[in-house]
Amino acid sequence: MTDTPRLEVYKDHSILITEDGIKERFDEGGQSKETKKRLVLIKNELEKGFLVNIVEECRHPSHTAQLLSDEYMKILRNLVNSVTSEVGRGVVGLAVLQVTTPRPNRARLLVS
């Protein structure tokens, strides 16, 4: 029995070991053509400053919460209110970026 969960990563598989000592194996397979294309696209966009550009766009004064619908404001308030010091900050940050960053190519990058 272990007191700390851990993930052992090998070339062709990973093993998750829970705090109860339960082992769960995840085999690694080859990437499909579509996955390889998407990976190239993501790497290219990141190299061109995709994340830096999103942060800079969010810092621009024209990106304010007043532009959001009441429905989105309610969702964001609920998300923010659910954050604790241990969990939730990353999820809320991503959610805010998703609803406040007007990037038509973002959907293509994340979905295609």
Question: Helices and strands in order, then pairings?
Answer:
Elements: E1 6-9, E2 13-17, E3 23-27, H1 33-47, H2 50-59, H3 70-82, H4 89-100, H5 104-111
Antiparallel strand pairs: 1-2, 2-3
Helix pairs in contact: 3-4
Structure, described:
With 112 residues, this protein is α+β, with helices and mostly antiparallel strands. The protein has two domains: 1-30, no CATH class; 35-111, no CATH class. Helix content is 52%, strand content 12%. The protein contains five helices and three strands; from the N terminus they run βββααααα. Helix 3 (70-82) runs antiparallel to helix 4. The N and C termini lie far apart (42 Å).
Précis, in short:
The chain is built from five helices and three strands, in the order βββααααα. The protein is an alpha+beta fold and 112 residues long.
Could you name the key traits of this structure?
single chain; about 110 residues; alpha+beta; three-stranded antiparallel beta sheet; about 10% strand
- The tally of domains stands at 2
- What pattern of helices and strands is seen along the backbone? EEEHHHHH
Overall average pLDDT: 76
Largest sheet, strands/sense/barrel: 3 strands, antiparallel
Major sheet: arrangement of strands: 1-2-3
